[in-house]
């Protein structure tokens, strides 16, 4: 039987990624940490804040899937490839838990998830091409940054929302383990400027996924324009303003 090449793996991972980005959310293998916690009473402002934070986390998990998939496809050693695949499997749980919580909150994932996926996959593949120690260093830095950002979300989430908090707390624990796994496997610590660049690009994704944008042309929502005029609507639309709900579903 023919051995699989890097190109084979890239195609396989892209196929899996397209399913993750466009298909139904994965079911996950571990039950949600929120499953036995009573639904909290949230007012509208709290619900919108929580939905925004959970949408950011969901988009982050889409990115994590993509990064690991890109890195697994280009990893040099089968051992590192296996570790990337195993971590990606845990990220599927995170994705499923965030999707479930978003639905409970009457919201939904970022419509830009396919874009986040493609960008992150490319970065992951490039990190893998740089060699396993650098790729593992990238995992370590990413997971540490995610851990810190989840801690920040725990500070911002309404105290009574124990359902969201349980999910974030478990994710934070898993991300710390992924970072440690990378270190134990021989990660090279990335230079500080690279880490700052990673933090900056993650910040852009977080801001866009949280706030979303509403487009308006002469009183018509961008969505209506897009339906009526195809992609010309994008260029003719002007950005009307930021909304705490995501693009194209303002008001949810
Ligand atoms: Fe995760
Ligand atoms: Fe992780």
Question: Can you describe what's shown?
Answer:
The chain folds into two domains: 6-211, Ferritin, core subunit, four-helix bundle (Ferritin), CATH 1.20.1260.10; 214-242, no CATH class. It is built from nine helices and three strands, in the order αααααααββααβ. It has helices spanning 6-22, 44-74, 78-104, 113-129, 132-156, 162-184, 192-211, 222-229, 232-236, and strands spanning 213-217, 220-221, 238-242. Strands 2-1-3 form a three-stranded antiparallel beta sheet. The radius of gyration is 19 Å and the shape is globular. The protein starts with 5 loop residues before the first helix and ends in a 10-residue tail after the last strand. The protein binds fe (ii) ion (2 copies).
Uncertain segments are 213-252
Give the CATH H-level superfamily of the largest domain.
Answer: Ferritin, core subunit, four-helix bundle
Strand content: under 5%
Number of domains: 2
Small molecules held by this entry: fe (ii) ion
Tertiary shape = globular
Q: Would you tell me which CATH topology of the largest domain applies?
A: Ferritin
What Rg is obtained from the alpha carbons, in whole angstroms? 19 Å
Q: What is the name of the CATH architecture of the largest domain?
A: Up-down Bundle
CATH class of the largest domain: Mainly Alpha
* Mean pLDDT score: 80
Count, helices: 9
Structural class: mainly alpha
Largest sheet: 3 strands, antiparallel
Q: Residue share in helices? A: 55-70%
N-to-C terminal Cα separation, in Å?
A: 52 Å
The strands making up the biggest β-sheet line up spatially as 2-1-3
Helix-strand pattern, N to C? HHHHHHHEEHHE
Number of strands: 3
């Amino acid at each position: 039987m023919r051995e699989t090449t890097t190109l084979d793996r890239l195609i396989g991972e892209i196929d899996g990624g397209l399913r993750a980005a466009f298909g139904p959310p994965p079911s996950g293998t571990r039950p949600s940490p929120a499953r036995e916690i009573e639904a909290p009473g949230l007012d509208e402002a709290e619900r919108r804040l929580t939905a925004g934070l959970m949408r950011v986390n969901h988009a982050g998990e889409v990115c994590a899937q993509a990064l690991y998939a890109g890195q697994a496809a280009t990893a040099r050693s089968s051992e590192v490839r296996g570790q990337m695949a195993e971590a990606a499997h845990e990220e599927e749980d995170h994705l499923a838990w965030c999707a479930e919580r978003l639905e409970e909150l009457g919201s939904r994932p970022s419509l830009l998830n396919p874009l986040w996926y493609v960008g992150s996959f490319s970065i992951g593949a490039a990190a893998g091409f740089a060699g396993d120690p650098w790729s593992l260093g990238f995992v370590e830095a990413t997971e540490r940054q995610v851990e810190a950002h989840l801690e920040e979300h725990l500070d911002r989430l309404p105290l009574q929302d124990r359902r969201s908090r349980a999910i974030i707390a478990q994710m934070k624990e898993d991300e710390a383990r992924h970072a440690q796994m990378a270190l134990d496997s021989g990660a090279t610590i990335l230079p500080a400027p690279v880490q700052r660049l990673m933090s900056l690009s993650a910040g852009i994704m977080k801001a866009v996924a949280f706030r979303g944008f509403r487009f308006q042309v002469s009183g018509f929502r961008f969505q209506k324009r897009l339906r009526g005029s195809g992609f010309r609507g994008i260029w003719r639309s002007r950005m009307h303003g930021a909304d705490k709900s995501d693009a194209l579903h303002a008001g949810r």
